[in-house]
Amino acid sequence: MPTAPQNTDELYDVLQENQRRPYGRARTVAAEELAEAAERFEDPLALVRTLFELQEAYTYGSEPRKSPVVFARLLTLFDEQPDVFTDRLRHLLFWRFKWVANSLRALPEIPLTSLRQWLTEMRGRYEKAGLGLQPYYAQTYQLAAHLGEDTAPAYELWAARTRTPFSDCEACEICERALHHLEGDDARALRTWEPVLDGKESCQEEPARSLSYALLPLLRTGDTDRARELHLAGYRGCRRNPSMAGEVGRHLEFCALTGNEARGLELLAENRVLFSEVDSPLDQFDFLTGVEVLLRRVESLGHGELPAAGYPGRTWTVAGLCAEVRERADDLAARFDARNGTTAHADRRKARLDRAPLLDALELTLRTRSLDDLSPVAPAAAPRAHKAPAVPDTLPELIARARELDEQGHPDAQPCWDRLHTLVAARDYTHPEDPAVGPLVRLRADLVSDEAAGAAHRDDDAKAAALYEEAAVLYETAELPGDAAVAHAAAALARTEADGEAADAEEKAEGLTAGHARVVRLHEETPGLTPCQEGRLLRLRASALCLRAQLSRSEEHLAAAAAEVEQLHTFATRHELAVQISGAVLLRAGTQALSGDLPAALTELDAHLDRLRRHGPAWHLSRTLGLRGRFQMGVRDAQAAYAELSEAVRVAAEWPARVSDTASLHGDLAEVCMHLGRPEEALRHLTRSAELDLRQGKRTDAYCTYSNAAQLSLDLGRVEDSIALLDSVLAERDIAAGELDDRLTAQLRLNRARALHAGEDLKAATTEFVALAAESADWDDDPGSHAMIAAETAVLLGEAGDFDRAAEAVGQALAAHARAPRYEQLSNALRELARLQAEQQGADGLPDALARLADADRIADEARAAGYEPHGRSLETALAYEHGRVHAYAGQYEDSLTALEKALGGLGEPGPENAGEWAECVRLAGVVEGIYLERTAPALARLDTAIPRLTALGHTEETESLTALATRLRDEE
């Protein structure tokens, strides 16, 4: 706490604020300080309340050693001053006898006799207070289950008794009964769990606890889809929670047994905090055993040297952490069994560790990754139909082969360059004395040029420009002016691209004009160019003008680009430069498409495909097929585009992804699939595209694509998939370290917050929205985005009933809207917030709700004055409808009906675009008029007129609610 409370009122305010925090060290420390502060006030009730809060913080913060100490103090206060305890506090006191029993069981240093003595104390206190003993027998059973002996009679003594107000909640008792049946009867256990797994019963710990235990039984009974679904939902409910470390361990075990070892390691990294923050030995035991199942599996697959997240203070490999975890978990099992006089914990541990994988592979998330993907070394490429010849053994042969293939633009040059990078970087490298190889400075220039090409492929244009310039200087030192000119030219265009990132289209076009001029000068002023060097310079010239034409679309620029392309094609044909010929044809088709002649572009590519299949270069096939697919989309033939792009992806698999740009092909296929109404397939192509970009180092492109995939997943109703995908992406090292563009990171977080909201995790969604609203308030260059985020934040706060903070968020949204209008988003948010306040607070909330609607009315006026056209119904009509709802919630039915009549007038006649809204407006008017105002006859007349009008238009579905209301009104007449 910044400052200690000076009186009990301040104490209670801070106490209430602390109760909104998540469980963990921050909440626990604050609770300790509050209890210490309460000691200074002569108010025993304040002390009692802070002690209850402290015990709760210890219990759910996984600090079982401290919870019983606090409870002992509470019990003493109850014995000495029972009148201080209200009925609610007395109920809490007797309820938490169970908490103490659970805490004592979790501590192997507490003798078994002390555990039994505590249960005896609990029974005596319950009997003295006249309370039923079912909770006592429940604790007796849980102790028996912990010991692994006499469980059957203990279960019967508990399960046969009637529940009392002090019994554990239904969800927790269901879990205990299911775990009892789990020993040998998966099906019965799952039937018992059904109310919790279906979400009908829940509490602080459930359903997360039950979900973690049900995963393996579901797999053993063949319900893999349900297991996948519950893993995603259940893990989200327990991750990074010290009091649910055992549940996290079971999710790690589930990953290990379903071929998802890589995901298991990712989840382990996300839960690294559990190694240091879990103080409960029993929770440690459960967690570490699950961790060891995962690590043993990874090690058995030959990946023991992979990095792993473990205990703080050092770095760990899988093998090293596994050994450490094994030693600690074995010790815990031995301590529990020594205390209990049984072998139950060692036996349970052995059973988990000896369990064989249940499935070779189960796709758990949209982002399926292998252990190879987690290796610090680049993952092995998938087998390809094209096999590169073996890299030459001798240095002269290797250097000559790399240069020869590089001149041809052949992908097989890359393995040679990769090998040379490794050899030259070695401290003992000795350059061959061979005139054919040339001096070391030339080889260094070649290698720097290769690095520049890699940077350009990753769209890191600034780095590519710098590396190309470095290579040019080295070539000049080696007295190779032609190679230097090509490197200078590549640097010029890369610099133009880098400088144009923040420029508008006109400025970019000007930059490309200057870049082209620079390349032309280099071409004209460099003597002794070889055909290959001249072909590359002509290709750079043509590329610059084609990019400029793409930006401006002007006839002058298109004509200049076409002329440059023809010059390249003529030169390349004369000198039989196959790669440059192909490049010229692709550029020519591109200029034809930009000119609006897509049929000519398709015809050009048809002929080119025939040439490529006969004469090569074969690695240009996928690029040509991909371009044909994009042009087919341009002529609105999605089916043909799908066929072309699918073939392009198949052909691309034969070559390295860097050459065939497979990521872009998958991205284009995703777009085509959406046009064909195949969103699930589109989702697969999006995630594949993103993963390929990530492997190629194009991280920004990858994260943008992942963001789109997450949104599509959410649109498809796959909420947990969306959340899991975004969780995985946000855990990437560069994002976690704050190295990614902050706006892109914010977009990923915003998508996740919306997914959490869709998944009905209002608390987590609101927390993220509040944080994003605070951060986006500093975006002076983008107030519109802040307006949108603050408006959404206000709605979520309204859903949570926190209308004071919602009003603050609305104020921020309106202030940002004044700088960058977001008419529709702000109007929608204000109307929804008004509805929430009237719905939750009734007449008491009407003044504030009407104030929100007044703001929405002002925004509608502004939008009309600005000529803004909303995407759906008019803002005025929507506002009138909301006035109707708000007044109805507040009991102002005449005003409500008047507003709804106005809304119907604004909607006009029902039609294809507004039938649903029109029907809902009629329905609500009928409810207000017929039920609340008890004017049955006019309400029925309204409905009887509307139903046949909708039916005649074919909107029978919209009539169902109206027909049901009319039937109800007639029945009540």
Describe this structure in words.
The protein has 973 residues and is mainly alpha-helical. 73% of the residues lie in helices and 0% in strands. The chain has 48 helices and two strands. A two-stranded antiparallel sheet has the order 1-2. Strand 1 (307-308) and strand 2 (316-317) form a beta hairpin. It is globular and about 105 Å long. The relative contact order is 0.03. The model is unreliable at 378-383 (pLDDT under 50).
Biggest pleated sheet: 2 strands, antiparallel
Coarse shape: globular
Physical arrangement of strands within the biggest beta sheet: 1-2
Amount of beta strand = under 5%
* Uncertain residue ranges: 378-383
Distance between termini? 62 Å
CA-based gyration radius: 35 Å
Portion of residues within helices: over 70%
**How many E-type strands?**
2
Helix count equals: 48
Please tell me the overall pLDDT: 94
Structural class: mainly alpha
